Predict the 3D structure of the following.
Amino acid sequence: MALYPLLRPAIFALDAERAHRATIQALKMKPAGRPSAPDPMLAVRVAGLDFPNPVGLAAGFDKDAEVFAQMLGLGFGFVEVGTLTPRPQAGNPRPRLFRLAEDEAVINRMGFNNGGQAEAAMRLKRRQRERGIVGINIGANKDSADRAADYVEGVRTMAPLADYLAVNISSPNTPGLRALQDKGALGELLAAVVEARGGDGPPIFLKVAPDLEPMDVQDIAEAVLAHGIDALIVSNTTISRPPLRSRHAGEMGGLSGAPLKALALRRLKDFRHATAGRVPLVAAGGIASGADAWARIKAGASLVQLYSALVFHGPGLVRRITRELGTLAQREGFARVADAIGSDPS
Protein backbone atom coordinates (compact mmCIF):
# COMPACT_ATOMS: atom_id res chain seq x y z
CA MET A 1 0.00 0.00 0.00
CA ALA A 2 2.68 2.49 1.12
CA LEU A 3 4.81 1.49 -1.88
CA TYR A 4 2.30 2.79 -4.41
CA PRO A 5 3.86 6.27 -4.80
CA LEU A 6 7.13 4.52 -5.71
CA LEU A 7 5.45 2.12 -8.13
CA ARG A 8 3.22 4.70 -9.78
CA PRO A 9 5.78 6.05 -12.28
CA ALA A 10 6.41 2.54 -13.62
CA ILE A 11 2.68 1.85 -13.83
CA PHE A 12 2.03 5.16 -15.57
CA ALA A 13 4.76 4.37 -18.09
CA LEU A 14 2.40 1.71 -19.48
CA ASP A 15 -0.67 2.66 -21.46
CA ALA A 16 -3.78 2.59 -19.28
CA GLU A 17 -5.26 -0.68 -20.49
CA ARG A 18 -1.98 -2.61 -20.26
CA ALA A 19 -1.46 -1.22 -16.76
CA HIS A 20 -4.93 -2.33 -15.74
CA ARG A 21 -4.42 -5.83 -17.10
CA ALA A 22 -1.06 -6.10 -15.36
CA THR A 23 -2.73 -5.07 -12.11
CA ILE A 24 -5.35 -7.80 -12.47
CA GLN A 25 -2.67 -10.41 -13.15
CA ALA A 26 -0.67 -9.29 -10.11
CA LEU A 27 -3.74 -9.43 -7.90
CA LYS A 28 -4.55 -12.95 -9.09
CA MET A 29 -1.21 -14.09 -7.65
CA LYS A 30 -1.91 -12.39 -4.32
CA PRO A 31 -3.54 -14.23 -1.39
CA ALA A 32 -7.09 -13.05 -0.87
CA GLY A 33 -6.37 -11.65 2.58
CA ARG A 34 -8.86 -11.03 5.33
CA PRO A 35 -12.08 -9.21 4.35
CA SER A 36 -13.37 -6.34 6.42
CA ALA A 37 -15.02 -7.27 9.69
CA PRO A 38 -18.24 -5.45 10.54
CA ASP A 39 -17.51 -2.18 12.34
CA PRO A 40 -20.40 -0.81 14.43
CA MET A 41 -19.43 2.73 13.41
CA LEU A 42 -19.33 1.94 9.67
CA ALA A 43 -21.74 -0.96 9.12
CA VAL A 44 -24.90 -0.28 7.14
CA ARG A 45 -27.86 -2.41 6.08
CA VAL A 46 -29.17 -1.85 2.56
CA ALA A 47 -31.73 -3.93 0.65
CA GLY A 48 -31.57 -6.64 3.30
CA LEU A 49 -27.78 -6.93 3.03
CA ASP A 50 -25.38 -6.16 5.87
CA PHE A 51 -22.37 -4.23 4.59
CA PRO A 52 -19.37 -4.12 6.96
CA ASN A 53 -18.57 -0.64 5.69
CA PRO A 54 -20.17 1.58 3.03
CA VAL A 55 -17.18 1.82 0.65
CA GLY A 56 -17.42 -0.39 -2.42
CA LEU A 57 -15.50 -1.09 -5.60
CA ALA A 58 -17.44 0.07 -8.66
CA ALA A 59 -18.00 -2.10 -11.71
CA GLY A 60 -15.38 -1.85 -14.44
CA PHE A 61 -12.31 -2.80 -12.45
CA ASP A 62 -12.97 -6.53 -12.12
CA LYS A 63 -14.86 -7.01 -15.36
CA ASP A 64 -14.62 -10.81 -15.46
CA ALA A 65 -14.90 -11.63 -11.74
CA GLU A 66 -11.24 -12.59 -11.42
CA VAL A 67 -10.09 -10.76 -8.28
CA PHE A 68 -13.16 -9.96 -6.19
CA ALA A 69 -11.74 -11.87 -3.19
CA GLN A 70 -8.48 -9.92 -3.32
CA MET A 71 -10.33 -6.60 -3.54
CA LEU A 72 -12.49 -7.48 -0.53
CA GLY A 73 -9.21 -8.21 1.25
CA LEU A 74 -8.08 -4.62 0.60
CA GLY A 75 -10.86 -3.37 2.85
CA PHE A 76 -13.79 -2.76 0.52
CA GLY A 77 -17.19 -3.29 2.13
CA PHE A 78 -18.43 -4.79 -1.13
CA VAL A 79 -17.23 -5.41 -4.67
CA GLU A 80 -19.24 -5.10 -7.88
CA VAL A 81 -17.96 -7.22 -10.79
CA GLY A 82 -18.71 -6.78 -14.48
CA THR A 83 -20.25 -5.44 -16.62
CA LEU A 84 -21.01 -8.97 -17.85
CA THR A 85 -22.95 -9.66 -21.03
CA PRO A 86 -24.67 -12.92 -22.04
CA ARG A 87 -22.11 -13.65 -24.77
CA PRO A 88 -18.38 -12.86 -24.77
CA GLN A 89 -17.63 -9.49 -26.32
CA ALA A 90 -14.36 -7.98 -27.51
CA GLY A 91 -15.44 -4.39 -26.93
CA ASN A 92 -14.41 -1.38 -28.95
CA PRO A 93 -11.12 -1.02 -30.87
CA ARG A 94 -7.99 0.03 -28.97
CA PRO A 95 -6.88 2.46 -27.71
CA ARG A 96 -10.03 2.80 -25.62
CA LEU A 97 -8.82 3.67 -22.12
CA PHE A 98 -7.05 6.94 -21.33
CA ARG A 99 -5.45 8.14 -18.11
CA LEU A 100 -5.76 11.93 -17.62
CA ALA A 101 -3.13 12.33 -14.91
CA GLU A 102 -3.29 16.11 -14.75
CA ASP A 103 -7.03 15.91 -14.03
CA GLU A 104 -7.07 12.74 -11.91
CA ALA A 105 -9.56 11.44 -14.45
CA VAL A 106 -10.11 8.56 -16.84
CA ILE A 107 -11.86 8.43 -20.21
CA ASN A 108 -12.98 5.03 -21.41
CA ARG A 109 -14.82 3.69 -24.41
CA MET A 110 -14.30 0.04 -23.53
CA GLY A 111 -17.66 -1.17 -24.82
CA PHE A 112 -18.50 -3.89 -22.28
CA ASN A 113 -15.45 -6.02 -23.14
CA ASN A 114 -15.76 -9.26 -21.16
CA GLY A 115 -15.55 -13.01 -21.46
CA GLY A 116 -19.28 -13.54 -21.05
CA GLN A 117 -21.49 -14.56 -18.18
CA ALA A 118 -20.90 -18.31 -18.42
CA GLU A 119 -17.14 -17.94 -17.93
CA ALA A 120 -17.51 -15.56 -14.99
CA ALA A 121 -20.18 -17.80 -13.46
CA MET A 122 -17.67 -20.64 -13.18
CA ARG A 123 -15.45 -18.46 -11.00
CA LEU A 124 -18.31 -17.00 -8.98
CA LYS A 125 -19.66 -20.46 -8.16
CA ARG A 126 -16.45 -21.17 -6.26
CA ARG A 127 -16.53 -18.09 -4.08
CA GLN A 128 -17.01 -18.25 -0.33
CA ARG A 129 -20.05 -16.04 0.10
CA GLU A 130 -19.43 -15.50 3.79
CA ARG A 131 -16.22 -13.63 2.90
CA GLY A 132 -18.02 -10.57 1.60
CA ILE A 133 -20.71 -9.01 -0.55
CA VAL A 134 -20.28 -9.32 -4.32
CA GLY A 135 -22.68 -7.60 -6.68
CA ILE A 136 -22.87 -8.57 -10.34
CA ASN A 137 -23.31 -5.85 -12.94
CA ILE A 138 -25.12 -7.06 -16.07
CA GLY A 139 -25.46 -5.53 -19.52
CA ALA A 140 -26.53 -6.23 -23.09
CA ASN A 141 -24.42 -7.34 -26.02
CA LYS A 142 -23.71 -4.61 -28.55
CA ASP A 143 -25.12 -6.64 -31.47
CA SER A 144 -28.18 -7.92 -29.60
CA ALA A 145 -31.48 -7.66 -31.46
CA ASP A 146 -33.35 -7.56 -28.13
CA ARG A 147 -31.54 -5.70 -25.38
CA ALA A 148 -34.26 -6.35 -22.79
CA ALA A 149 -33.97 -10.09 -23.43
CA ASP A 150 -30.23 -9.87 -22.72
CA TYR A 151 -30.95 -8.36 -19.31
CA VAL A 152 -33.51 -11.05 -18.55
CA GLU A 153 -30.95 -13.71 -19.50
CA GLY A 154 -28.39 -11.99 -17.31
CA VAL A 155 -30.74 -12.02 -14.35
CA ARG A 156 -31.54 -15.70 -14.78
CA THR A 157 -27.90 -16.70 -15.19
CA MET A 158 -26.31 -14.56 -12.50
CA ALA A 159 -29.02 -14.23 -9.83
CA PRO A 160 -28.09 -17.47 -8.04
CA LEU A 161 -24.51 -16.22 -7.71
CA ALA A 162 -25.07 -12.57 -6.78
CA ASP A 163 -25.61 -10.82 -3.48
CA TYR A 164 -27.20 -8.13 -5.62
CA LEU A 165 -27.63 -7.53 -9.35
CA ALA A 166 -26.82 -4.17 -10.92
CA VAL A 167 -28.71 -3.46 -14.13
CA ASN A 168 -26.43 -1.20 -16.16
CA ILE A 169 -28.34 0.84 -18.74
CA SER A 170 -26.12 3.89 -18.48
CA SER A 171 -22.85 3.17 -20.25
CA PRO A 172 -22.24 5.67 -23.07
CA ASN A 173 -20.08 3.17 -24.97
CA THR A 174 -22.77 0.79 -26.28
CA PRO A 175 -24.78 2.61 -28.97
CA GLY A 176 -28.42 3.09 -28.00
CA LEU A 177 -28.05 1.62 -24.52
CA ARG A 178 -28.92 4.82 -22.68
CA ALA A 179 -32.24 4.91 -24.56
CA LEU A 180 -33.34 2.23 -22.07
CA GLN A 181 -33.53 5.05 -19.51
CA ASP A 182 -36.48 6.51 -21.44
CA LYS A 183 -39.75 6.23 -19.54
CA GLY A 184 -41.56 3.60 -21.62
CA ALA A 185 -38.54 1.41 -22.30
CA LEU A 186 -37.43 1.56 -18.69
CA GLY A 187 -40.79 0.47 -17.32
CA GLU A 188 -40.87 -2.54 -19.63
CA LEU A 189 -37.28 -3.46 -18.80
CA LEU A 190 -37.72 -3.23 -15.05
CA ALA A 191 -40.92 -5.28 -15.17
CA ALA A 192 -39.08 -7.97 -17.15
CA VAL A 193 -36.03 -8.17 -14.88
CA VAL A 194 -38.12 -8.20 -11.69
CA GLU A 195 -40.21 -11.05 -13.10
CA ALA A 196 -37.06 -12.96 -14.10
CA ARG A 197 -35.56 -12.44 -10.65
CA GLY A 198 -38.61 -14.01 -8.98
CA GLY A 199 -39.63 -13.80 -5.36
CA ASP A 200 -36.49 -15.26 -3.81
CA GLY A 201 -33.78 -13.70 -5.94
CA PRO A 202 -31.22 -11.08 -4.92
CA PRO A 203 -31.91 -7.34 -4.71
CA ILE A 204 -31.84 -5.42 -7.98
CA PHE A 205 -29.96 -2.12 -8.24
CA LEU A 206 -30.32 0.17 -11.26
CA LYS A 207 -27.27 2.10 -12.49
CA VAL A 208 -28.08 5.41 -14.16
CA ALA A 209 -26.17 8.09 -16.04
CA PRO A 210 -25.35 11.55 -14.68
CA ASP A 211 -26.33 13.16 -17.99
CA LEU A 212 -30.05 13.48 -17.26
CA GLU A 213 -32.63 16.23 -17.50
CA PRO A 214 -34.96 16.92 -14.53
CA MET A 215 -37.85 15.13 -16.24
CA ASP A 216 -35.61 12.09 -16.82
CA VAL A 217 -34.79 11.96 -13.13
CA GLN A 218 -38.46 12.10 -12.21
CA ASP A 219 -39.43 9.42 -14.73
CA ILE A 220 -36.67 7.08 -13.55
CA ALA A 221 -37.59 7.65 -9.90
CA GLU A 222 -41.24 6.84 -10.60
CA ALA A 223 -40.33 3.66 -12.50
CA VAL A 224 -37.97 2.50 -9.76
CA LEU A 225 -40.64 3.01 -7.10
CA ALA A 226 -43.36 1.41 -9.21
CA HIS A 227 -41.37 -1.77 -9.86
CA GLY A 228 -39.84 -2.18 -6.43
CA ILE A 229 -36.21 -1.73 -7.46
CA ASP A 230 -34.05 -2.07 -4.37
CA ALA A 231 -31.49 0.71 -4.94
CA LEU A 232 -30.19 3.23 -7.46
CA ILE A 233 -26.50 3.63 -8.35
CA VAL A 234 -25.87 7.29 -9.14
CA SER A 235 -23.95 7.52 -11.39
CA ASN A 236 -22.04 6.14 -14.34
CA THR A 237 -19.49 8.07 -16.42
CA THR A 238 -20.40 11.32 -18.17
CA ILE A 239 -20.26 12.27 -21.82
CA SER A 240 -20.03 15.94 -20.82
CA ARG A 241 -16.64 17.62 -20.73
CA PRO A 242 -15.82 20.11 -17.99
CA PRO A 243 -12.53 21.98 -18.50
CA LEU A 244 -9.66 19.46 -18.64
CA ARG A 245 -5.89 19.92 -18.92
CA SER A 246 -4.83 16.55 -20.30
CA ARG A 247 -3.89 15.98 -23.93
CA HIS A 248 -6.48 13.18 -23.88
CA ALA A 249 -9.32 15.59 -23.10
CA GLY A 250 -10.78 15.28 -26.59
CA GLU A 251 -11.08 11.50 -26.58
CA MET A 252 -14.55 10.05 -27.02
CA GLY A 253 -16.07 7.97 -24.23
CA GLY A 254 -17.21 8.25 -20.65
CA LEU A 255 -15.34 10.53 -18.26
CA SER A 256 -14.80 9.47 -14.66
CA GLY A 257 -12.71 10.63 -11.75
CA ALA A 258 -12.32 14.02 -10.07
CA PRO A 259 -14.01 16.14 -12.79
CA LEU A 260 -17.21 14.12 -12.36
CA LYS A 261 -17.54 14.93 -8.65
CA ALA A 262 -19.81 17.97 -8.78
CA LEU A 263 -22.15 16.54 -11.41
CA ALA A 264 -22.46 13.18 -9.66
CA LEU A 265 -23.20 14.86 -6.33
CA ARG A 266 -25.85 17.07 -7.94
CA ARG A 267 -27.53 14.08 -9.55
CA LEU A 268 -27.46 12.17 -6.27
CA LYS A 269 -29.31 15.02 -4.59
CA ASP A 270 -31.80 15.10 -7.46
CA PHE A 271 -32.60 11.42 -7.01
CA ARG A 272 -32.84 11.78 -3.24
CA HIS A 273 -35.44 14.48 -3.74
CA ALA A 274 -37.29 12.63 -6.53
CA THR A 275 -37.57 9.41 -4.51
CA ALA A 276 -38.26 11.22 -1.21
CA GLY A 277 -35.70 8.94 0.39
CA ARG A 278 -37.76 5.82 -0.30
CA VAL A 279 -35.05 4.10 -2.36
CA PRO A 280 -31.49 3.55 -1.09
CA LEU A 281 -28.88 5.37 -3.17
CA VAL A 282 -25.37 4.25 -4.02
CA ALA A 283 -23.08 7.17 -4.91
CA ALA A 284 -20.34 6.86 -7.50
CA GLY A 285 -18.25 9.35 -9.43
CA GLY A 286 -15.36 11.51 -8.25
CA ILE A 287 -14.99 10.00 -4.79
CA ALA A 288 -11.33 10.15 -3.70
CA SER A 289 -11.38 10.91 0.02
CA GLY A 290 -13.29 10.43 3.22
CA ALA A 291 -14.63 13.96 2.82
CA ASP A 292 -15.97 13.11 -0.64
CA ALA A 293 -17.66 9.98 0.66
CA TRP A 294 -19.03 11.83 3.70
CA ALA A 295 -20.59 14.52 1.49
CA ARG A 296 -22.39 11.83 -0.54
CA ILE A 297 -23.64 10.07 2.58
CA LYS A 298 -24.99 13.30 4.05
CA ALA A 299 -26.62 14.04 0.69
CA GLY A 300 -28.51 10.75 0.85
CA ALA A 301 -26.21 7.89 -0.19
CA SER A 302 -26.30 4.73 1.89
CA LEU A 303 -23.23 3.35 0.10
CA VAL A 304 -20.45 4.79 -2.05
CA GLN A 305 -18.34 3.28 -4.82
CA LEU A 306 -15.01 4.22 -6.33
CA TYR A 307 -12.68 3.04 -9.08
CA SER A 308 -10.85 5.80 -10.95
CA ALA A 309 -9.40 7.25 -7.74
CA LEU A 310 -7.51 3.99 -7.18
CA VAL A 311 -5.51 4.71 -10.33
CA PHE A 312 -4.10 7.89 -8.80
CA HIS A 313 -4.08 7.11 -5.06
CA GLY A 314 -3.41 3.38 -4.95
CA PRO A 315 -4.99 0.45 -3.10
CA GLY A 316 -4.51 1.98 0.35
CA LEU A 317 -7.17 4.54 -0.47
CA VAL A 318 -10.10 2.41 0.65
CA ARG A 319 -8.86 1.94 4.22
CA ARG A 320 -7.97 5.62 4.38
CA ILE A 321 -11.51 6.56 3.38
CA THR A 322 -13.11 4.24 5.92
CA ARG A 323 -10.90 5.66 8.69
CA GLU A 324 -11.76 9.20 7.67
CA LEU A 325 -15.48 8.40 7.60
CA GLY A 326 -15.37 7.21 11.19
CA THR A 327 -13.49 10.33 12.26
CA LEU A 328 -15.90 12.65 10.46
CA ALA A 329 -18.95 10.94 11.93
CA GLN A 330 -17.59 11.27 15.46
CA ARG A 331 -16.56 14.88 14.88
CA GLU A 332 -20.09 15.79 13.82
CA GLY A 333 -21.75 13.93 16.66
CA PHE A 334 -23.08 10.83 14.87
CA ALA A 335 -22.91 7.51 16.71
CA ARG A 336 -22.76 5.70 13.37
CA VAL A 337 -22.05 6.72 9.80
CA ALA A 338 -25.46 5.32 8.86
CA ASP A 339 -27.13 7.89 11.10
CA ALA A 340 -25.83 10.66 8.80
CA ILE A 341 -27.52 9.36 5.64
CA GLY A 342 -29.55 12.20 4.14
CA SER A 343 -28.76 14.60 7.00
CA ASP A 344 -27.78 17.38 4.56
CA PRO A 345 -29.80 16.89 1.36
CA SER A 346 -29.63 20.54 0.22
